[in-house]
């Protein structure tokens, strides 16, 4: 089988106000809450969304506006993946639990695959999330390279 991968890249601009997805597995939710508390002011400058339970807890306990999607096991990871494929997500903070097997492991893998494919910055633990949020790029408009979807289809059709 010949390997297929996008041959051309396009550009996408992440605005100053970023669309940030917040996702934490149950064993990581308290860590997520503590991290989000430390970065509350910065988070309030962006557009937030998250899987159901994570989003609900952050908005309830921190008073931030967070769009709640489905809970992860009910399809929330897939919804975030769809936002990525449509170019509607800029950053992903995903505190996944390396000790807990999940019924929706395939969805988790699919989300991480799409984030990698579409060059979306991902933080998988608190230290990475701190590095990300300390970056001056958080308050700037940033151009990133993404696969050229039109070229991909044209060369295959
Ligand atoms: O399971 C999740 C991500 O895979 C998170 O879902 P909840 O935020 O609804 O707990």
Automatic annotation (TrEMBL):
It comes from the Bacteria. It catalyses: dihydroxyacetone phosphate = methylglyoxal + phosphate. Its EC number is 4.2.3.3. Substrate binds at residues 25, 29, 51-54, 71-72, 104. Pfam families: MGS. InterPro entries: Methylgl_synth, Methylglyoxal_synth_AS, MGS-like_dom, MGS-like_dom_sf. The keyword Plastid does not apply. Residues 12-157 form the MGS-like domain. The keyword Lyase applies. One of its GO terms (molecular function) is methylglyoxal synthase activity. Keywords: Lyase. The active site is at 77 (proton donor/acceptor). CDD domains: MGS. Belongs to the methylglyoxal synthase family. NCBIfam families: MGSA, PRK05234.1. Catalyzes the formation of methylglyoxal from dihydroxyacetone phosphate. This is Methylglyoxal synthase. It comes from Cobetia marina (Deleya marina). The gene is mgsA.
């Amino acid at each position: 089988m010949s390997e297929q991968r996008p041959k051309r890249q396009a550009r996408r601009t992440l605005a100053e106000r970023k669309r940030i997805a917040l996702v934490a597995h149950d064993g990581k939710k308290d860590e997520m809450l503590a991290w989000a508390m430390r970065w509350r002011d910065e988070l309030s400058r962006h557009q937030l969304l998250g899987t159901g339970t994570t989003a609900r807890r952050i908005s309830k306990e921190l008073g931030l506006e967070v769009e709640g999607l489905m809970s992860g096991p009910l399809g929330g990871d897939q919804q975030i993946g769809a936002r990525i494929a449509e170019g509607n997500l800029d950053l992903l903070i995903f505190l996944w639990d390396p000790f807990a097997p999940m019924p929706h492991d395939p969805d988790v893998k699919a989300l991480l695959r799409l984030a990698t494919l579409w060059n979306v910055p991902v933080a998988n633990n608190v230290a990475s999330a701190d590095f990300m949020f300390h970056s001056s790029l958080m308050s700037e408009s940033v151009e990133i390279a993404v696969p050229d979807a039109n070229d991909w289809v044209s060369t295959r059709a």
